[in-house]
Amino acid sequence: MPDFQCPGTHPYLLDQNLSEGRSVPAGVRVTESGRVAVNIAPTYTRTWADEPRRLLKTGWIFDSSPFTFASATNWNPDGATLTVEATCTSDASRGAPY
User: Fold this and answer.
1) Is there a contact between 15 and 49 (Cβ–Cβ < 8 Å)?
2) DSSP bridge partners of 41
3) Longest dimension (CA), the chain
4) What is the spatial distance between Cα 4 and Cα 38, in angstroms, rounded to a whole number?
5) Which in 31, 50, 84, 93 has the greatest CB count within 10 A?
């Protein structure tokens, strides 16, 4: 899993669970063809939003901390495809809190 940063035009990760039952950040959608386990536990990048006044997630990095990792395990013997998409917003009120 590479590091990720929302673009300047839409700087905040969307505060919505897009991958029910998966251990991934808000604003991240995981789609796969079957039997792929995905876990994303990053260090988040963040920015201050004036309205509402709070820190919001803008992306993630995987650093040297033992608590930052990402994995995808394919349990399908026939192979599988995996797509990870981040959804970003320009609306700070809909951004994922840090």
Assistant:
1) no
2) 69
3) 49
4) 16
5) 84
CB 98, CB 37: distance < 8 Å: no
- The confidence score (pLDDT) of residue 94 equals 95
The helix/strand/coil state of 53 is coil
85: which residues sit within 8 A by CB, 6+ positions away?
A: 28, 29, 30, 31
Dihedral sign, Cα of residue 51, residue 96, residue 56, residue 4: negative
Q: Please give the structure tokens belonging to residue 53.
A: 């006044």
